[in-house]
Amino acid sequence: MKKDLPENSVTGVDVAVVLESDSPQGKVWNVYLINEKDTQIQNVLVSSKGYGTKDNREVKTTTLRHFLGDVGAQSAVKIEAIDTEVFGLTNEYWVSYYEDNIMYDKKYIFLPESIVDENLINAPFIGKPGVMIGGQN
To answer: Does domain 8-119 have CATH number 3.40.50.300?
Structure first.
């Protein structure tokens, strides 16, 4: 049955953890959905959670769901703020959306300790440094 379903490959939709500001009080980070497509995507739903081991104990964060609505072509939308305390966990973002009445979904996973200065790039449409995972299958 599953083999009969079409494979709807996600391309041009990214998730980025962006450094908004860096001050003596600390760094402020936000997570963004980036639509690099030339077309709008509709009914965007993002589910986020963190999990892993911290101080030799299993840790799971609350699962959050964010309805972003329609995301315009060549734009970025903030999903949520993210605390540096969870950078040592696996942070998972499951993105679902419609494009041309076809549903797409993809899981984006930031591995523990992957959100570090060495992995920062200039996030498209935001113009700030961030760690980005692209929607390429």
So the answer is: no
